[in-house]
Amino acid sequence: MQIILISGLSGSGKSVALNVLEDASYYVVDNLPATLLPQLVAYLRDAGYRRVAVAVDVRSGANIAALPQQVDQLRGMVDDLRFIFLEARDDALIARFSETRRKHPLAQEGVSLEEAIRQERDLLSEIAELGHRVDTSELQANTLRAWVKDFVDIEATEGLTLMFQSFGFKYGIPLDADLVFDVRCLPNPHYDLRLRPLTGRDQPVIDFLAGVPEVGRMAEDIRRFVDTWLPAYVRDNRSYLTVAIGCTGGKHRSVYLAEWLAERFRDRVRVLVRHRSAARRASDTAGNGAQ
Predict the structure, then answer these.
(1) Dihedral angle computed from the Cα positions of residues 70, 72, 74 and 78, in that order, rounded to the nearest 10 degrees
(2) Cβ distance 58 to 10 under 8 Å?
(3) Is 12 part of any known ligand binding site?
(4) Is 58 annotated as a binding residue?
């Protein structure tokens, strides 16, 4: 039996994630009190359900504090348990609530939206460490849908999944990053008019950066650092390690290095690659952020 748990901040995209899983034929339960998780899973398992997705968040009230204990119990009940925690920057959440005119579940009388978001972030701070964190601040709904599908499609085996994520510093450091490397000191293809419209996945940009000795040294230094400390993260029983590579716009250097690094580790651990700049460019031509 496979269980996908969804939690996170209100407005960070939980409904998008649940819809993806429901479309993929998961049995979906939204807003379940954490204390009822074992009973629900036992009932659905006995009823023959094999793929279940459950959303548990601050709407459960004080019950949310029981989630870590319930997660430990569930690991002994099912073959495959995965946990996605969605979050976003305060400014992105405020904009989403303003656009949809929804009320934050903690925004009671005398509590502003900003205060409610800070309170919710505090309440969920420990729970965030239980799962695979995804910062949806700059993501469009379609990008989040694709990332959730990637998460579900990962082979269910023991061990750590290593994710290399490119981003642009001018859009902010991703909240879900575990390790952050700044590569803005490297030569920037942006200043070559032929390369400017391309990305670090295009061959002309790859050829340009591969020919710069400083880029090679930086790439090898990051590879060596991750290679040295990866066993420590594995011993810490981490399910996911997100290595964020940032340049100015998140389009050329960081994309190239994220792809280069991913290729060096694929024969050792499960690897994912994500490029936040691609999501950002989509948002420049369309609205509808992850809700």
Answers:
(1) 170
(2) yes
(3) yes
(4) yes
Query: Taking every pair of C-alpha atoms in the chain, what is the biggest distance, in angstroms?
Result: 62
Round to the nearest angstrom and report the end-to-end CA distance of the chain.
28
Check: CB of residue 129 under 8 Å from CB of residue 119: no
- For residue 145, the surrounding DSSP H or E stretch is helix 141-153
Query: 15 labelled as ligand-binding?
Result: yes
How confident is the model over 192-201, as pLDDT tens digits? 999 999 999 9
10 assigned to a ligand binding site: yes
Lateral strand order in the sheet of 2-8: 27-29, 51-55, 2-8, 80-87, 132-135
How many residues belong to the chain? 291
Helix or strand (DSSP H, E) at 106: none
Whether 11 has a binding-site annotation, put simply, is yes
Q: Is 60 annotated as a binding residue?
A: yes
| Contacts (Cβ under 8 Å, ≥6 apart) of 67 | 7, 34, 37, 56, 127, 130
CB 165 within 8 Å of CB 245: yes
Across the 291 residues of the chain, what is the mean pLDDT of every consecutive 10-residue run? 94 94 94 90 93 92 86 88 94 91 85 93 90 90 89 70 94 94 97 94 97 97 97 85 96 97 93 80 44 40
- Does the annotation place 98 within a ligand binding site? no
DSSP secondary structure letters along 196-226:
TTS-TTSHHHHHHHHT-HHHHHHHHHHHHHH
CA distances from 48 to 34, 107, 150 (A): 22, 39, 25
Q: According to the annotation, is 76 in a ligand binding site?
A: no
Supply the pTM of this predicted model.
0.80
User: Is 13 among the annotated ligand-binding positions?
Assistant: yes
pLDDT digits (tens, 9 = 90+) for 204-263: 999 999 999 999 999 999 999 999 999 999 888 788 899 999 999 999 999 999 999 999
Retrieve residue 59's tokens: 């709407």
